[in-house]
């Protein structure tokens, strides 16, 4: 028995084997070797050597695999799939080892998450924080492009479908409620993604990065490619260290504060495109034109994963935002003009979301 809620080791190994086969092409590993390594990776737990010396798990498995004539990549994956075991431990780098290590850790994470066995406070009996950090380190140090959420959803499909009820989470046996199962898998995967975000913040903070920048990037839709997130955070940090970045952030916060106050006072949102015909001052027209250009340039740059170029596109807004606040009065008596100017300020907020949610950035 692996765990009373997660079944036997045989069931666990079947899940890991299947997941390793799915992950193998994504990390440039041989599919059959990854599946073979996953099938054998826990076999040494039954030996008397590992029974007496648990710290030899994996290492003994490699020795047995080599003695049995298994492929060298398979043997090394059996040893390396436990790595990294700690902050100072090396991460696996061979593709087969990477596939099995990721499969083992992800299966463990989604299984315990689906059964509501999460870390609480300082308690983490199943070392789920370490497993999460292991996944993060493997991805980042090997520079692997991998979307976390679909992988978690796929891994959850191998587990019992679960449903939240007043009494807790209950296995679903009735095929007629499979749609609820799909919704639950998406819910569990999104919860787990938030945990990855928290662990990534810890990892990046230890490396000197700002946690609020991680929040600003994760706040955007569909951010689950950890390597891209880190690259975007790095580009955002460099941008905010410049005068253009600092001043644009200040302008953004001023704009959003005005919008927030007026939306609260008026009981409505000022969204939607402003009317160009109502731009009565040159500064309004210049800001509107700059926003259109910056939004298109930033979106193209993000699509091509050139985050430095996206930040440069944002920087082009800075002088126009400054000029707008210097010369244009927003809260005028003319209601259509006031509404249009508030919508123009909202366009600043919408444009910056191409690179990050600036509302999450401190300062």
Share of helix, binned:
55-70%
Low-confidence stretches: 161-166, 174-180
Tally of extended strands? Answer: 2
**Rg value:** 25 Å
Write the element-wise H/E pattern from the N-terminal end onward.
HHHHHHHHEEHHHHHHHH
Tell me the structural class: mainly alpha
Assembly annotation: single chain
Strand content: under 5%
CATH topology of the largest domain: Hypothetical protein af1432
- First-residue to last-residue Cα separation: 51 Å
> Helix tally?
16
CATH architecture of the largest domain: Orthogonal Bundle
Mean of residue pLDDT values? 88
Major sheet strand order: 1-2
Domain unit count: 2
CATH class assignment of the largest domain: Mainly Alpha
Give the overall form.
elongated
- Largest sheet features: 2 strands, antiparallel
Describe this structure in words.
The structure is a single chain. This protein has 363 residues and is mostly helical. The longest helix is centred in the middle third of the chain and has 29 residues, at 178-206. The chain contains 16 helices and two strands. The chain has helices spanning 9-23, 31-40, 48-52, 59-68, 72-80, 95-114, 128-141, 148-157, 178-206, 211-218, 226-240, 243-266, 282-303, 307-315, 318-327, 335-352; strands at 162-165, 168-171. It folds into two domains: 9-208, Hypothetical protein af1432 (Orthogonal Bundle); 239-360, Isoleucyl-tRNA Synthetase, Domain 1 (Orthogonal Bundle), CATH 1.10.730. A two-stranded antiparallel ribbon has the order 1-2. Helix 11 packs parallel to helix 14.
């Amino acid at each position: 028995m692996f765990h009373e809620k997660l079944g036997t080791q045989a069931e666990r190994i079947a899940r890991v084997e299947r997941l390793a086969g799915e992950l193998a092409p994504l990390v440039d590993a041989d599919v059959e070797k990854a599946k073979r390594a996953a099938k054998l990776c826990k076999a040494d737990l039954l030996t008397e050597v590992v029974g007496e010396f648990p710290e030899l798990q994996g290492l003994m498995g490699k020795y047995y695999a080599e003695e049995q004539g298994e492929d060298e990549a398979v043997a090394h994956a059996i040893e390396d799939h436990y790595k990294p075991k700690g902050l100072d431990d090396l991460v696996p780098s061979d593709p087969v080892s990477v596939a099995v290590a990721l499969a083992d850790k992800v299966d463990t994470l989604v299984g315990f998450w689906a059964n509501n066995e999460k870390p609480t406070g300082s308690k983490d009996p199943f070392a789920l924080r370490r497993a999460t950090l292991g996944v993060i380190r493997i991805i980042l140090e090997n520079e692997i492009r991998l979307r976390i959420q679909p992988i978690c959803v796929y891994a959850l499909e191998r587990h019992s479908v679960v449903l939240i009820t007043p009494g807790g989470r209950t296995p679903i046996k009735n095929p007629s409620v499979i749609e609820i199962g799909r919704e639950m898998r998406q819910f569990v995967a999104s919860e787990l993604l938030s945990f990855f975000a928290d662990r990534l913040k810890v990892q990046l903070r230890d490396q000197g990065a700002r946690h609020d920048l991680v929040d600003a990037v994760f706040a955007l839709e569909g951010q689950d490619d950890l390597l891209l997130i880190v690259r975007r955070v790095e580009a955002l940090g460099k941008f905010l260290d410049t005068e253009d970045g600092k001043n644009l952030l200040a302008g953004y916060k001023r704009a959003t504060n005005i919008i927030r106050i007026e939306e609260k006072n008026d009981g409505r949102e000022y969204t939607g495109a402003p009317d160009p015909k109502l731009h009565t001052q040159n500064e309004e027209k210049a800001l509107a034109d700059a926003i259109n250009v910056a939004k298109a340039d930033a979106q193209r740059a993000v699509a091509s994963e050139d985050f430095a170029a996206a930040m440069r596109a944002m920087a082009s807004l800075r002088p126009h935002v400054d000029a707008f606040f210097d010369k244009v009065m927003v809260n005028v008596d003319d209601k259509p003009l006031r509404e249009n100017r508030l919508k123009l300020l909202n366009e600043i907020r919408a444009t910056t979301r191409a690179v990050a949610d600036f509302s999450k950035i401190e300062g």
